[in-house]
C-alpha cells in the first residue's frame, strides 16, 4: 500500500501536465472542426481523470477525506484563495477569491477594464462561481496552481484555463 501511494505521489504531477496538454490538443482539434479527434482526446482525458481521482487510503485502510483525487477540502480552499489568471481563446481575466466566499473578476476589454463580482461555493468536484449578472463558471477539482480547467457557462466546458497569479 505504501508503494502504491508513493508511485501515485510521484506520477500525479506528470499526469496533471499530460492532462493539461490533452486539453489544449482537444481545444485545437475542436477549433479545426475535427470532432472525431477531439472525442478521442476527451476519452483519454477521462481515463487520466479517473486515474487521478482514485481515492487514496489512509494508513489504517480507511478512505482519506477528499473531494476528488488527493486534494482535501481544506487544501482546495487554501489553494484557491488569492488571484488567478484565467484565459481561453482571446479572452483574458483575473479572478480573485476571498475566504468569505466572495470573488471578483477584472477583464481587459476593447473599452477598457471591466469588473465583476460574485460568490463562490465548494461543491463535490468543483468550485462553483455565480456572478452578479447570473452566469456561472466553475473551477474543476483538483485545483492545481500551474493549470486548472474552468467550465464557463458562456464559453463551454473546460474552455478556460486558470493559473495562480504570482
Task: Reconstruct the topology from this structure.
Elements: H1 2-31, H2 35-52, H3 73-80, E1 82-88, E2 91-97, E3 102-109, E4 112-122, E5 126-131, E6 136-140, E7 148-152, E8 156-164
Antiparallel strand pairs: 1-2, 1-8, 2-3, 3-4, 4-5, 5-6, 6-7, 7-8
Helix pairs in contact: 1-2
General description of the model:
The chain has 166 residues and is α+β, with helices and mostly antiparallel strands. It has three helices and eight strands. It has helices spanning 2-31, 35-52, 73-80; strands at 82-88, 91-97, 102-109, 112-122, 126-131, 136-140, 148-152, 156-164. The protein has an eight-stranded antiparallel barrel. α1 (2-31) runs antiparallel to α2. Residues 56-68 have low confidence and may be disordered.
Helical residue percent band = 25-40%
The sequence of SSEs as H and E is: HHHEEEEEEEE
Average of the residue pLDDT scores: 81
Give the CATH class of the largest domain: Mainly Beta
How many helix segments?
3
**SS strand fraction:** 25-35%
CATH topology-level fold name of the largest domain: Lipocalin
Number of domains: 2
Instruction: Tally the beta strands.
Output: 8
Provide the CATH architecture of the largest domain: Beta Barrel
Q: C-alpha Rg, in Å? A: 17 Å
Q: Which descriptors apply to this entry?
A:
3 helices; 2 domains; alpha+beta; 166 residues; eight-stranded antiparallel β-barrel; Lipocalin; single chain
